[in-house]
Amino acid sequence: MLFHVRMDVRLPLDMPPAQAEQLKQSERELAQSLQRSGTWRHLWRLAGQYANFSIFDVASVEELHNLLMSLPLFPYMQIEVTPLCRHPSSIRESDA
Amino acid sequence: MLFHVRMDVRLPLDMPPAQAEQLKQSERELAQSLQRSGTWRHLWRLAGQYANFSIFDVASVEELHNLLMSLPLFPYMQIEVTPLCRHPSSIRESDA
Amino acid sequence: MLFHVRMDVRLPLDMPPAQAEQLKQSERELAQSLQRSGTWRHLWRLAGQYANFSIFDVASVEELHNLLMSLPLFPYMQIEVTPLCRHPSSIRESDA
Amino acid sequence: MLFHVRMDVRLPLDMPPAQAEQLKQSERELAQSLQRSGTWRHLWRLAGQYANFSIFDVASVEELHNLLMSLPLFPYMQIEVTPLCRHPSSIRESDA
Amino acid sequence: MLFHVRMDVRLPLDMPPAQAEQLKQSERELAQSLQRSGTWRHLWRLAGQYANFSIFDVASVEELHNLLMSLPLFPYMQIEVTPLCRHPSSIRESDA
Amino acid sequence: MLFHVRMDVRLPLDMPPAQAEQLKQSERELAQSLQRSGTWRHLWRLAGQYANFSIFDVASVEELHNLLMSLPLFPYMQIEVTPLCRHPSSIRESDA
Amino acid sequence: MLFHVRMDVRLPLDMPPAQAEQLKQSERELAQSLQRSGTWRHLWRLAGQYANFSIFDVASVEELHNLLMSLPLFPYMQIEVTPLCRHPSSIRESDA
Amino acid sequence: MLFHVRMDVRLPLDMPPAQAEQLKQSERELAQSLQRSGTWRHLWRLAGQYANFSIFDVASVEELHNLLMSLPLFPYMQIEVTPLCRHPSSIRESDA
Amino acid sequence: MLFHVRMDVRLPLDMPPAQAEQLKQSERELAQSLQRSGTWRHLWRLAGQYANFSIFDVASVEELHNLLMSLPLFPYMQIEVTPLCRHPSSIRESDA
Amino acid sequence: MLFHVRMDVRLPLDMPPAQAEQLKQSERELAQSLQRSGTWRHLWRLAGQYANFSIFDVASVEELHNLLMSLPLFPYMQIEVTPLCRHPSSIRESDA
């Protein structure tokens, strides 16, 4: 099942740069691992924003929730989840 | 270049069903043609909404605008356009 | 899987009463059938509003979407869908 | 009487983890006690959010207010209360 | 139990004046009857608005909902309901 | 003249409890004194909120403003003022 | 007492021009009469909007409400009322 | 040229009272000087708010901007600027 | 003086195409004439929207207001006006 | 390709003046360099706001994003990006 997720990151302005870097590095590693496993299907940056649009392919809402909660940047993100389904005009098999 | 577009459709409640069907049929044909050509990269339905999230791959903003204006349902849609770029954590070549 | 859905109904003020009654009657029959089958788990009215909060138990987002689209009042409703998951503090087996 | 409540929790980012854990533990114990007594009828997590939808069954608005004020996380929550009543199409005796 | 209700009335601009007058007259009679019985505790006009703030004293949410649904102007109103309880600093016995 | 006022209180999370208690105690004393003098006509708590709806009876806008500015919790409140007038359907002499 | 009022006018697009002209003419005459009597203290147009900011000087909220309800364009206006008082830094006697 | 400006002031809750007083005193002196010179045409307090509505008479947008930037409270204010013009129904020469 | 204006056009869905074409043609002619005279400094289309961002160079707010009111599409537009001034970092003489 | 960008700057109130000055100075130098190269096409100040409207001319969304991320004030800005295209009524060659 596919879910569209928008994540907006807001790191505290006084967070030490080393801590911010470490957080982003851990986030990147987890994101890439989840992309390799096929769970994090798409990941795009919004131009001019510290934010992304993502498409997740999960077996249940529970899996999606646990995944999002496990992100190192979760405490600093505002998250918006939209459940998706196949569009009747779509011709792309993998978009369902 | 990639653009994320949300389209919400609101047909007038008193539109004759035949006219609505014809509009949707023309829209579907154009959408599928643009998917086949690779311009309309992704197309998903929002659950419970007469709305979609789409990803377009175009050579310019002009091309995107002309494409959206040519949609048969354009006069009945509310459209939100967000320019995308490659996410530094993305591992998917085709998401750029 | 559980989804929380809010539906706000807005019938056109000039809809003939007989048509409105028929729509509501069809809606009621479908709602009750889906409650009996266990899909429409809960259904409450918001006080002072022509609106409801509902909990649906479905096997996929697709099933939820098709169900909502099939409601006779769908063309007259504004719908908001929120995916739910089990709360770590919940002790109620059926709330998952 | 039933009330629908949405609670969004926002702990200060600099709260010591031990204090946060203690708060959540106290909250969990109270939540489970109120579920056992039947007052906190339902409790669901919103996917991707540190937030819940709850259904409370209370004898009065006063009881609901005192209950919410007594939650250990109350100072850190944004709360939205919606009074519910039986839906005319509901067939579930316990949803009233 | 007390509930604070805001009602905003929007009559269609093309409603025949006689129909509007009759609706308002029926509304007034019901409002005054409910004030006499003590259920519609307070009723104020918002300056410059076709809107009111009201305080209702009812035995249940159900009673409040049925009352609001029975108002002749209900189909033309936007309604916002807020459950109230006694303020700890209040000295007025009847405000509870 | 009557004014409807909504006050939402937001004390800083790190305010020492003794200071918070003293502020609330001063606020309560002033609120009760103004109720006894008839200026603060009604005072209700919104269920689940650190907020109140109040009705003030003052001789001028100036009097209302000075009163609100003098509240010990004023620096911590968001305030919304709505001027009221007698509703044509009201039968309650004191609601004007 | 002074009140700041914003009025936004929205005439139906299909109103016959003669009717619109007559409404505006009646509105203008009343507005000028109320300016001459000193009640409608100031009247400005918002650039690019069919809207105005006005300052009214009235003896009571009741007087303000009756005045606004009597405007020929009232059924076509959205109105926002803000009670004013003398600013402590004002040096202009007539602004109070 | 006239501009309508709304200013909402939000001083940090932990600003030392002496600093706040000095800021307000400087603000008051500048405001009164600008009123005397005719630039700050009107100045009213919004009841119950630490906010004002002002009318400025300036020769250019540049002059308005420089004036607002020079206010001692500028770093603590949220400002909304609306350009005004003479209302066709106005009879007051000085409101243009 | 420069003003930034956003115009969103909403033609009624049932406007006869010939009337719509004539309106757009008149609008285009006026827009081009005002561009030639230097008053309508810039004009861009928002991608995917029937809307534009414009920069006007006028001698007064009055001139801007009269110009906007004279646009054939004015009755069908929502307009937002923002006064501009020279940015201290700008190096472009003509942007002031 | 042209993009319309609004930037609102919010420096922390307790940032040392020297640090703020240095940030603004670096920002100014980069802005002027980008103006000279033709990338930052226009730059205007919003009257009364610490904010600007800008027009960027870039070869891709990627270039725009990298440019915005490189601004010294980026961590303190709220940014809104709108893709533009040539308006059919524009006569200005350089506005495309």
Automatic annotation (TrEMBL), chains A, B, C, D, E, F, G, H, I, J:
What EC class does the entry list? isomerase
Any one GO MF term held by the record is: muconolactone delta-isomerase activity
Would the keyword Protein transport turn up in this protein's UniProt record? no
Keyword Membrane set for record: no
Instruction: Give the reaction(s) catalysed.
Output: (S)-muconolactone = (4,5-dihydro-5-oxofuran-2-yl)-acetate
State the UniProt keywords alphabetically: Aromatic hydrocarbons catabolism, Isomerase
Organism of provenance? Duganella qianjiadongensis
**Alphabetized NCBIfam families for the sequence:** muco_delta (TIGR03221)
Upper classification of the organism: Bacteria, Pseudomonadati, Pseudomonadota, Betaproteobacteria, Burkholderiales
The gene is catC
Describe which pathway this protein belongs to, using the record's wording. Answer: Aromatic compound metabolism; beta-ketoadipate pathway; 5-oxo-4,5-dihydro-2-furylacetate from catechol: step 3/3
Record-annotated Muconolactone isomerase domain positions? 1-89
Q: Which SUPFAM superfamilies match?
A: Dimeric alpha+beta barrel (SSF54909)
> Subunit structure, briefly?
Homodecamer.
Q: Which InterPro entries match?
A: Dimeric_a/b-barrel (IPR011008), MLI_dom (IPR026029), Muconolactone_d_Isoase (IPR003464)
Q: What domain of life is recorded for the organism? A: Bacteria
Name of the protein this chain belongs to: Muconolactone Delta-isomerase
The enzyme's E.C. designation: 5.3.3.4
Q: Which family does it belong to?
A: Belongs to the muconolactone Delta-isomerase family.
